[in-house]
Amino acid sequence: MPSGSEDLSAVNRRDRPYFVLQGNICALLAAKDHVNVFLYDGAIVPDPEHIIAAGHDNKTARTVAIRPGEQVNSRALIAMFQQIIANNRAGGWRKLKQAEEPIRRG
């Protein structure tokens, strides 16, 4: 997570809070019966505990749903936040994905 000299910021972009640190980390999106934590991970952050609720095929972000009365797997969610922050520090998920793609020669 952020060191003492870094600032994890909440930015209100129109109608929902975004959390940023050297790039987008997540946004909170309220639904009728739950809150979605919209993770900007480029679908490259591992989800070994299967907390992702939607966006499995999305190329830019996925969501974790938090419902009243349900236990949040905070350890898994924090691990995902930490990986997103590490990816941001390494240039962002777009740069990391591009580096993984094979070089196409035509």
Give a verbal description of the structure.
- This protein is an alpha+beta fold.
- The protein is built from two helices and five strands.
- It has helices spanning 74-89, 93-100; strands at 9-13, 16-20, 24-30, 35-39, 62-66.
- Strands 1-2-3-4-5 form a five-stranded antiparallel sheet.
- A hairpin with a 2-residue loop joins strand 1 (9-13) and strand 2 (16-20).
- The termini are far apart.
- 19% of the residues are buried.
- The model has no long low-confidence stretch (mean pLDDT 83).
Total E-strand runs: 5
**Ends distance:** 42 Å
Strand order of the largest sheet: 1-2-3-4-5
Q: What helical percentage do the residues reach?
A: 10-25%
Structural class: alpha+beta
The whole-angstrom Rg is: 15 Å
Shape call: globular
**Mean pLDDT, nearest integer?**
83
The largest pleated sheet is described as: 5 strands, antiparallel
**SSE ordering:** EEEEEHH
Low-confidence stretches: none
DSSP helical segment count = 2
Report the sheet-strand fraction.
25-35%
What keyword list fits this structure?
23% helix; globular; 25% strand; alpha+beta; 2 helices; 106 residues; 5-stranded antiparallel sheet
